[in-house]
Design goal:
It contains eight helices and eight strands, in the order βββαβαβαβααβαβαα. By secondary structure, the chain is α/β, with parallel strands linked by helices.
Length: 237
Amino acid sequence: MVDHRTVDVAGIRLACRVSGPPQGPPLVLLHSMGEHAGTWAEVAPALARRSRVYAFDLRGHGRSDWPGTYSLELMKDDVLASLDALGLGRVDLIGHSMGGIVSYLLAQERPDQVGRLVLEEAPLPLPREPFPATRPEGELDFDWDLVGAVRSQIDTPDPRWLDGLGLITARTLVVAGGPDSHVPQAGLAELARRVPDGRLVTFPVGHLVHEAAPDEFVRAVEEFLAEDSEGPSTTAR
């Protein structure tokens, strides 16, 4: 059963889908740009067998508020405030693409609050060549105004974000989609190297790993979350 909730934080309402056993360890899911919590529909029920799953709509997406003001830092602050409002302490965290950037910014700011971190196809914060964005046809379930603001930050990231990867204390699994992904795979390997306790696993299915290979994604994540804290931490590919 999925419980649809809203959390009010600093005048912004965030929507959240909650599932799983109430006493399960909290697991937070953050989606990519232009998506919403529903993107996790194929994997959330399986993850909710073990964990109490909190899948958020980030600001400007889905049922959350569309305030017209957007940045990756604001999204990170929204999630941190929501965790506080929900009374969640230490959490495990999965972020896809843009949601992965929000996730590693959160883990940099509050390293003690993130137990395990999964970064699915989250780009390394290095400058990239901008490319034009084309608005999809029809009605959107996200605010198109956020695209320019957020993509400008991804194109020219704050240099502190790269240095901040070394502040992450959570054991980290970087999930790569292989050569069919538009995200540079060498950057994902570098991301796994820069996080002190990071490793890389690749599923050659493209950018949407959790949708294209849900069973394999869940298996890898469940094994990672279940590992003993003293277990292996060598990089895997």
